[in-house]
Amino acid sequence: MIGADQWSLHYKSIPEKLQRMYNDGYKLVILTNESNIERHKNKRQQAVDSKVGRLDNFIECVKAPIQVFIACGLGKGKDIPDDPYHKPNPGMWWLMAQHFNSGIEIDMDQ
To answer: What pTM, to 2 d.p., does this model score?
Structure first.
């Protein structure tokens, strides 16, 4: 899907629920796989700008700060190692938790 405006909410209640969670003290984080950016070899920057634009527009819709991590992938092939940051691997989560959470320990019981 190319274009900053090429997105929609599946549920209209999402912005309100995320705003409520933020107001209740939760940190909002998006972890997203975007290995399809690799498909756009000649238009890679356009694909990246499109994705960032869609995320910016979503965050603007939610009206709450959201931290975003994007795994673009290492590509595919027999000599390419498994990407530790690409979901379902937990690399993006651990990166956020250990280096981009202002030293705040995450309460996994919540």
So the answer is: 0.82
Structure tokens at 54: 């869609």
Note the pLDDT of residue 41.
64
Rg (CA), the chain: 16
Contacts 24+ apart (CB under 8 A), 84-88: 86/33, 86/35, 87/31, 87/33
Over the stretch 96-107, which tens digit does the pLDDT of each residue have?
A: 999 999 988 998
Domain membership of residue 44 as a residue range: 14-99
CATH of the domain at 95: 3.40.50.1000
